[in-house]
Design brief:
By secondary structure, the chain is α+β, with helices and mostly antiparallel strands. The chain has twelve helices and nine strands. The strands form four sheets. A three-stranded antiparallel beta sheet has the order 6-7-8, covered by helices on one side. Strands 1-2 form a two-stranded antiparallel sheet. InterPro entries: Kinase-like_dom_sf (IPR011009), NAF/FISL_domain (IPR018451), NAF_dom (IPR004041), Prot_kinase_dom (IPR000719), Ser/Thr_kinase_AS (IPR008271).
Amino acid sequence: MQVLASKSKIYMVLEYVNGGELFDTISSKGRLSETQGRKIFQQLLDGVSYCHRKGVYHRDLKLENILIDANGNVKITDFGLSALPDHFRDDGLLHTTCGSPNYVAPEVLANRGYDGAASDIWSCGVILFVILTGSLPFDDRNLSVLYHKILKGEIHLPKWLSPGAKNLIRRILDPNPKSRITMASIKMDDWFRKDYHPVYLEDEEDTHMTNEALSFSMHEVPSYLEEKCSESPTTINAFQLIGMSSCLDLSGFFEKEDISERKVRFTTINHSTKEDILKRMEDVVTDMGFLVQKKQRRLKVMREEKGENGMATILSILAEVI
């Protein structure tokens, strides 16, 4: 996803998945064959298990949140209710009751704490049931009756389902989370493994810029704008100003925890020119033993030698608030 902003509008650019929701596929075409359903379920499990390895628990897996692209590839969406490691309480469990009624695990309804991985697996089992049968395993207009059915965990499997599919669904939709099949065991199941080609997802490699690139590699300014840019500091619109506010800083959602970085933002209302401000900053850091590189409104300083924690680098960017 990319986010762009003008002075009055915010634009979010998202991937277009033209196959639509899995819910629409089942609603229009009915149940899928075991071969088709297994392929979708295999991809779903690969995606969910990857999230679990990263400490992310979806908590709202359902047909409407599974998209299928033109090539039949699964895309998991809507992580609005997902839980992260710091959401667990001291007992190691999650306690927020959430999810869609027909897909929620019984232990979530019990309101005594639950394991995020086990509850996601339950939801995957409901999805598999719908894919292969065209109907929900637990359904009722009355929520109390629906929740009672889920807590009992009694399901009725069609006779025409293969024994392997029936066995796997029963093991996933086990109302006891402690005896419910685990993600690893699902991937060892004979029915699941048929024509299975695991997806090994690799994280994007961290990109470390060279010193030359760091001073200061931003998007290149078109030549017809260079003259204007060199004459005055970059202006900041309202959205950028909000993004610079520490109380609204969302970088923690996206930046890796092991990156040692501190950001300090400040404003000045004196009437000094940008040259005066940069000169004062340069004088201070030079006295501290830093090497200095300047480029228009940017000032980069760094120590010549590396310490035990790596090279200390400071990047200062001067901007005019409008």
